[in-house]
Amino acid sequence: MSVIGKQLSTNTFAARKPPPSTTQLRIVLLGKTGSGKSSTANSILGRKAFDSMVYSSSVTQHCRSVNGDVRGKHLVLVDTPGLLDTHQTLQDVQRELRRSVSLLYPGPHVFLLVIHIGRFTQEEKEAVRQFKQALGSKALHFTVVVFTHGDLLQKGTSVKECLIDRCKDLAELVDECGGRYCVFNNHNSKDKGQVHELLTIVDALMQSNEGSYYTSKVLQKAEEELVLELQEERRLQNEKEELEKKKQEAAIKEWYEGELEVVLQNTKREIEKLKKKRELEKQEDEKLVRQRVEAFKREIEENNRKEKEEREIQDMIRITEIRQEEEKKKEALQKKLDMVTKLLEEQAKQEEKSRRAMEEKMQKDRVENLMKEEALQKQLEKLIISLEEQRRKEEEEKKRMEDMLRNERVKNRRELDKHTENHRAEKRKTEALSNELKLIKMKMEKHKAHKESLKQQLEEILQCVRERYFKEISMLQKQCDKKCPEMCDQTDNMCSAKKHSVLTTVTGYAQAMGLVGLNAALGSIGVHICLQ
Predict the structure, then answer these.
(1) Poorest-confidence range of 2-16, 87-101, 168-182, 446-460?
(2) What pLDDT score was predicted for residue 17?
(3) Where would you tag: which of 28, 173, 204, 422 has the fewest CB atoms within 10 A of its CB?
(4) Is 43 exposed, middle or buried (0-12, 13-18, 19+ CB in 10 A)?
């Protein structure tokens, strides 16, 4: 893996924003062999940058990147070697994806998922599932579906009507990609409208993603999840095999115990039957002997004494014969019993032999299972060792990147401190001006209140002057009424002149007092202006 690939594997950011002024667009083309990835890349660039032929095997054998300028944008395209073929394992897909991402450092802006127009087969569904499993669900936020061989569509119809609306799985895939898709006819490479449509969709995609790009964090997370999933599957498989083994052993043991119990019960019943039969025969023989003996006795008693000896001899002979017959019967019964015992022993030996064969088979299966477990354990240890080695390398690279980031943070912190200090000075200056403004407002409010108070005092003084004036007029009128009529006119004229003089004096006094109060208020707030 290149140094750039290592940097991507230790990247801790899911997406980064490029500088606003950049016009570079990084694209990765993914798809099955024969889907038209290379032809689509050539159509986008407007030239033959990748080899494209109709083969059952992939023309592109390794990830390859090509640069080009299209509509004022600098494009970097990476073609992949049949990345989503079903004969590849998920580890192969993961390795090729990491290689393709490393060619587009720091990360691609968009993935073009190239699909041949036609029936969406189960094989293609499995390939799309591998794509989502390898890149994670976040990769679909950076994906556009490109349908190639657009010349196969009938005139007046769209790919949505002919393919997407008729296939539920394909419709779900397009929905997961945010409804982003377009159609390419690579046989008509001079058609720039399809390239313009694709770039418009990509611009909208980048705008919705706020200019971010896909990085390798999701790939690293997917690898860790894959290892955990494989370990979990292996654990579940071992538990299932162990459970099946226990069930099989329990079934064999139960069957063997059942068969043995049946055999023992049958043997016990046969022995009981033989014992009962033997007892019955013995009772019958004894009964017969007793009957014959009694008959002989009766005959002896009935016969003459002369024949006593002969009868005794005959009785003895008969008794001897009867005993001999009984002995023969006993021997026959003993032979039958021996035969049954021998049959039971042979049956027990046969059952012991079958039991040993069953145990040997179980032991052989146990040894084979142990060998399989050891092989799986060795594979797991190798995988763990490789993962630990990779993790160690990634930790080293991570430390180096952290040192670089730490130095960059220190530099940025210094600039930020300087900017913060300037901001604080501006803030203090603003606060001082704000305080002065508040103080001026408070002084103005005090002056306004003072002015209102002066106005109220002036009105009270005017009211008192009016009342006193009216009292004097009333007294003068009473005095004039007592004097001669000739003096009335003169008195009236004097009163009018006096009234006008008093009003003029009071008004001038009020205005002078108002100007004095206003000048005093302006002087108290620092405004040196004199109003006259």
Answers:
(1) 2-16
(2) 45
(3) 422
(4) buried
Partner residues linked to 73 by β-bridges:
70
Read off the amino acid at residue 320.
T
Q: What digits encode the pLDDT tens for the residues 336-353?
A: 888 878 888 888 888 888
- Long-range contacts for 342-347 (Cβ within 8 Å, ≥24 apart)? 344/267, 347/263, 347/267
Q: Tokens 């146990």 identify what position?
A: 366
CATH of domain 23-214: 3.40.50.300
The rounded distance, in Å, linking the Cα atoms of 171 and 177 is 10
Arithmetic mean of pLDDT over the chain: 77
Does pLDDT of 63 surpass 60? yes
The domain locations on the chain are 23-214
Run of H or E including 484 = none
On whether the CB atoms of residues 94 and 134 are closer than 8 A, the answer is yes
The helix, strand and coil proportions of the chain, stated in percent and rounded to the nearest 5, come to 75, 10, 20
- Tokens (6 digits) for 66: 């090509």
The span from the CA of 81 to the CA of 57, in Å, is 10
Angle at the Cα of 424 from the Cα atoms of 419 and 428, rounded to 5 degrees: 150
Length of the chain: 532
Q: What is the mean pLDDT of residues 498-514?
A: 53
Unique residue bearing structure tokens 């994806």: 97
**CA 50 vs CA 32, 37, 38, 368: distances in Å:** 16, 9, 6, 51
Instruction: Give pLDDT tens digits for 110-141.
Output: 999 988 887 778 878 887 887 777 777 778 88
Angle of the 90-102 helix axis to the 122-135 helix axis, nearest 10: 60
Cα–Cα distance measured from residue 223 to residue 437, given in angstroms and rounded to the nearest whole number: 64
Give the pair of three-digit tokens for residue 393: 């390398």
- What the block records as the tokens of 415 is 């600039």
- The per-residue pLDDT for 504 is 58
